[in-house]
Amino acid sequence: MSSSGGSRFDAVDIIRAKRDGGELSDAQVDWAIEAYTAGEIADEQMSALAMAILLNGMSRREISRWTDAMVRSGTRMDWSGVGRPTTDKHSTGGVGDKITLPLAPAVAACGAAVPQLSGRGLGHTGGTLDKLESIPGWRASLSADEMLDVVRGAGAVVCAATEDLAPADKKLYALRDVTGTVEAIPLIASSIMSKKIAEGTGALVLDVKVGSGAFMKDVTSAQELARTMVDLGTDAGVRTVALLTNMATPLGLTVGNALEVRESVDVLAGGGPEDVVELTVTLAREMLSAAGIDGKDPADALRDGSAMDVWRAMVTAQGGDPDAPLPKARESHAVLAPVTGVLTDLDAYRVGVAAWRLGAGRARKEDAVQAAAGVELHAKPGSFVGGGEPLLTLHTDEPERFDRALEILDGAYTIAPSGARPDLPPLVIDRVA
Ligand code: URA
Question: N or C: which end of the chain has fewer CB within 10 A?
Fold first, then answer.
């Protein structure tokens, strides 16, 4: 039924129902999303409804219908032409989270098709497209036909979502961002899952980050978000699994666009930091299992060069030169360890904000990012550091940015006397299926 004229329901009645703790009917949910997308519900009314949802929550049925209505606000992609099972991963966002870069090629090298529609970074977490755009020539925006060609040829594509993928979410997310309503679990879950369902993947693995650098700071709320998203995927016919993973400290040894591409290429070449390799392989096995593919181990694909072959094909198909040197920052500054001992803590959020202040991230959607800015880590929690030796190196093209980055890094780490054994959380904290 059409929502023309906004006459089927009254926005104020819907806001009052949710404000008073009631449940919205399927027809009310459909109308709210359709009418908002069509501009028939005003931003201030949708803000009030989003706040009522944040305060009073939604039932599983309401969240499922809300998600489905956002999927139906645009087109749902169809990958049946690629001739292989499709599988994808979504991360709720973290600091140094470059996992998509080695992961998509490793999974494709094992026989799945990986259609990954990604976003740009906002705030202290980086965006996959920003990272890949540091490769000279690489293009994020592809038409639906081009995406299909890249997946057919390389096995994986990582690119920007088209405008008609869940347009209701684009509008609603922008509104939530400026009305203090991002943090509602029903709204986060429906926002993420509407895009992944519309993307058309058959299987999905969710990497729900937990810790200071993540949206979800504690395990209980991360479990609730994971459960909600797994249920939404399952209701929509997508085989969905979630892992809760540690984001108390940055992933790997680099934070920043080109720095993270370099580290990802190390992983594709069979090296790279242990935590990045472990998470890549763990998520890859989950993606393959959800897609019903067995018999190939993604750890072998990283070792034998087959994942690297996919990476090179994928980058080349999107106009990038996998052999071109990556940009290097004009200026760098070393942060020295003040004492000798064991690094017990290096705060992900503060390192993420430092990288952002150095120019790696953006405050507004329209801002440009510096390809080469960011933070290099010389130690991870649990390792020995020598007093006076570099702990971090900061990179930027604009040296006037160092002071503000150093400000947030003050108190970002703890060094305990040598011999201390910090109690570090495991990389994979929980699994929700
Ligand atoms: N990422 C999304 O896509 N949506 C949210 O609401 C939060 C994070």
Answer: N
